[in-house]
Amino acid sequence: MLQAIGLTSARTRGQTPAVDDLTFDAEPGCVTALLGAPGSGKTAALRLMLELEPGRGITYFRGRPLHRVPRPAGEVGVVLGDVPGHPARTVRGQLRMLCAVAGTPASRADELLAAVGLAGLGDQRIGRLSLGMDRRLALACALLGDPHTLLLDDPVEGLPPREADWLHGMLRSHAERGGTVLFATSDPKEAARSAGHVVTIDGGRLVADQDGAAFSRTRLRPRVAVRSPHAARLAAIVSREARVARRSVEVVAEAAGNQLSVYGSTCAEVGDAAFRHGLPVHQLADEVGDMGPGGTAGAPAVDGADGTLEVSALAVGPQRAAARTSGTAVPGVSSRTATADGPAAVSRPGRPVARREVPPPIRRRPARGPLWPVRYELRRLFGVRSTTVIMAVVLVASVGLSLLLARGGRAPLAHVIAAWPALLPLPPVALGAGLLGALSFGDEFRYPAVAAGRGTVPRRLGLLLAKLVVSGGVALLLAALAVPASVETLRIVYGGDWLHLPSNAVSLAVSWSGLTVGCAWAGLLAAGVFRVAAAGIAAVLAVPVVMVPLVERLPKASTARSMAGLPGRLRELAWLQWPGEVDRWLLAAVRIVVQPVGAALALSLAALICAFLFTSLRGRVRW
Q1: Contacts of residue 8, Cβ cutoff 8 Å, sequence gap at least 6
Q2: Tell me, what's the pLDDT at 350?
Q3: Assuming Cys at both sites, which of 73, 226, 295, 564 could form a disulfide with 315, CB separation 3.0 to 4.6 Å?
Q4: DSSP per position, 148-197
Q5: Residue 564 — pLDDT band, cuts 50, 70, 90?
Q6: What SS3 string covers 518-585?
Q7: Which residues contact 586 (CB under 8 A, 6 or more apart)?
């Protein structure tokens, strides 16, 4: 069961809130429609329920607010607009990636593809889907965690009738299994046709709360749609003949001057009247007319002089209207008056009128990160072709540069194997690792697949650690592939007589690995701080272009002192005694860090880590 209590949008200066003290229920086993004209506050109400916008009020999902639900994907499924995600990702890849978010096995993706009719389109790219297929995929994403409640914002907008009927059939099927379904719509006919409970809002306020039968009876009326060049004369004739025959007929002139809506008559009666008087008729059809939220044709609810929202008898039913006008309580009916400047007063049978307590504040809370972050990051990284393309281009460029450097014969062997000419700030492998690291966070903000519209979701510390591990592993993989590929290519082209293992091969390998991993992490952290991949690439390039010159300009006097004996002094500070072999590795690491590139990269990473933690803590990041 879904209970929305006192939902009120945050007030902005000089403007009324989009949602004002909205309270209603959505029962399990029933499809509920949230009906309102465009701009009436439907989308804002859904976002308040999901804690995506600040305001006041509270929404209970089976007795718990969303931020108290330990596994939200298993409680609420959401469809807000089109499917978020990288357009180059496949349909099956998108669902399997979101399975890691929801904590469900990957086999769930194939089950839902069959359930929504996309079994044959699993390898189709998201960017090439039609609108109907996109909505089917959105529904599959919402159902991944097998949620009890479904929230959908205008799910059939723009769909052909066949696709719309299929989607509403899926919603009814979910409700018949005991689930709760709430969808927003601006079409009263769709609400009457597809929902068993209709909540009508206007201007962000509750207008009517009815079951489907009462809504159809009070809101929708059969009418005759007439279009004639002499509409005014025909309206007068039809009204006069109805008075003579003592029939209840209402004629309403539409916005277009040549159109009429005739209530309480038939096409035959209107056509006969036009024929008898020689009036041409261009259109004559039976339709179902919308009486509007206020209960009169084409007229919305009107604010009363005392600042309260007046609701007509036709909109809320005769019993509720009688209770409002007479001031008496009707058994089983609660009456509430929502004022424009404060909480509502609630009147219930047998109880005195009392002002309701101010609803609690709604804070915009970022959604939880993926339940399986490493699995999610691996599927996100290798779910698009750009990752493998970048890795292939980097390896080809590295091998090509190694051949050119070896041909010149002037570059040191280490630079030849690493493909690092003096004219490049960094070798191709380091640049490629930095680019992949920048895309790890840049794509999260550009194509927010974790949770659309939920702000700082990619800043979750659990997801950050997963990204650091995966990006570091990919950087090491690139570094490990580039060296043997270059060595083997050089041996084939130039022969292997001049290739020999350097005496400091271990320290060179550590430096090479540290450079690639450091560049990957620098790109990742910078993209996470500034929310764009270009910032990550700029941070990687800033290491050799900006930071290295600054480090080299530091006073040279510090080199007069020696760090000899550093491991022994550290051993004295530590409680645990490590093996003597660790001393050699510690000194090797220190020598690498004090090199200009190593020092510049260490300073950059330290600054980026501090910036990332600062921005994350400001957003109240959680695991």
Answers
A1: 17, 19, 20, 21, 22, 48, 55, 56, 57, 359
A2: 41
A3: 295
A4: SEEEEESTTTT--HHHHHHHHHHHHHHHHTT-EEEEEES-HHHHHHH-SE
A5: low
A6: HHHHHHHHHHHHHCCHHHHHHHHHHHHHHHHHHHHCCCHHHHHCCCCCHHHHHHHHCCCCCCCHHHHH
A7: 566, 567, 570
Place of tokens 């902005």: 12
Please answer whether residues 225 and 214 qualify as being in contact, where contact means their C-beta atoms are separated by less than 8 angstroms.
Answer: no
Q: Which helix (H) or strand (E) holds 505?
A: helix 505-530
pTM score, whole prediction: 0.76
User: What burial letters (b/e) apply to 495-522, b meaning 16+ CB within 10 Å?
Assistant: eeeeeeeeeeeebbebbbebbbbbbbbb
- On whether the CB atoms of residues 612 and 535 are closer than 8 A, the answer is no
Query: For residue 132, what are the CA distances in angstroms to 171, 323, 468?
Result: 15, 45, 37
Query: Which of 540 and 339 is assigned the larger pLDDT?
Result: 540
Taking the CB of residue 51, how many other CB atoms lie within 10 A of it? 21
Which is more confidently placed, 94 or 613? 94
Compute the distance between CA of residue 139 and CA of residue 143 in angstroms, rounded to an integer.
6
Contact 97, 449 (CB under 8 A): yes
The pair of structure tokens assigned to 363 is 């804070």
Question: Among candidates 117, 101, 99, which has minimal Cα distance to 109?
Answer: 99
Instruction: State phi, psi for 524 to the nearest 5 degrees.
Output: -65, -50
Helix, strand or coil, per DSSP, at residue 515:
helix
Structure-block tokens of residue 332: 């089983």
Residue whose pair of structure tokens reads 């089109």 in the numeric block: 82
With left for phi above 0 and alpha for psi between -120 and 50, is residue 390 left, alpha or beta? alpha
Q: Which two tokens stand for residue 176?
A: 């018949």
Q: How far is CA 232 from CA 227, 236, 239, 269, 378, in A?
A: 11, 6, 11, 17, 69
Mean pLDDT of 81-85: 83
The tokens for 250 are 């209402």
Q: Which amino acid is at 244?
A: V
3-state SS class at 281: coil
CB atoms within 10 A of CB 304: 10
Distance CA 130, CA 112 (A): 18
